[in-house]
User: Which sequence fits this backbone?
């Protein structure tokens, strides 16, 4: 990416979002049932932005809760004891 280091990422992301809009309009105008890849481009921009700010997508909250439980030693002990004493 060094070669392109002078690129303004904000402008590039805006261009990609415009491309997504164009793809969606073209797909709709031609009667296609898909969006021409517009959602995928928008998602990529969203994930890039979240990575830049070190944020987590809202949809990952349920995975975070599972991850915390899985990595919590007390919860692991609870599961071990639960399995031991349940029939």
Assistant:
């Amino acid at each position: 990416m060094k070669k392109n280091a002078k690129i303004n990422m904000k402008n590039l992301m805006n261009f990609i979002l415009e491309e997504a809009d164009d793809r969606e309009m073209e797909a709709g105008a031609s009667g296609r049932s898909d969006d021409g890849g517009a959602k995928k481009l928008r998602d990529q921009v969203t994930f890039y932005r979240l990575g830049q700010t070190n944020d987590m997508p809202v949809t990952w909250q349920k995975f975070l809760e599972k991850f915390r439980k899985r990595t919590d030693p007390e919860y692991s002990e609870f599961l071990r004891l639960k399995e031991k004493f349940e029939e």
